[in-house]
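User: I'll paste a sequence; please echo it back and then give the predicted structure.

Assistant: Echoing your sequence first, then the prediction.
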Amino acid sequence: MTVSLQVLYPTESNTTFDHAYYQSTHLPIVREHMGPHIDSTLIVKGLAGGPDTPAGFHTIATMTFADQQALDAALAAAGPALADIPNFYSGQPQMLIGEVNG
């Protein structure tokens, strides 16, 4: 069963997010340490939450994995990626682990 890990970076509480750092430095760290276990990655930069509504998230990263064991292995290797978060985001990210149904 395919599973996903989504990392959401809310815009609440006037948080800041350095998109350039995220692209140039953080994503290569994720690829180096977690990449061998990831099937696919989708990074979405928040632009709006609807017409005339600010985005609720700076960015949402979605990674899919072949199964729970692959996700567990990626999370076990995620230390350097987790330690890097304060270098580009001033808040506390949210995570959602889910079963992919479509």
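The CA atoms of residues 42 and 76 lie 21 Å apart. The radius of gyration is 14 Å.
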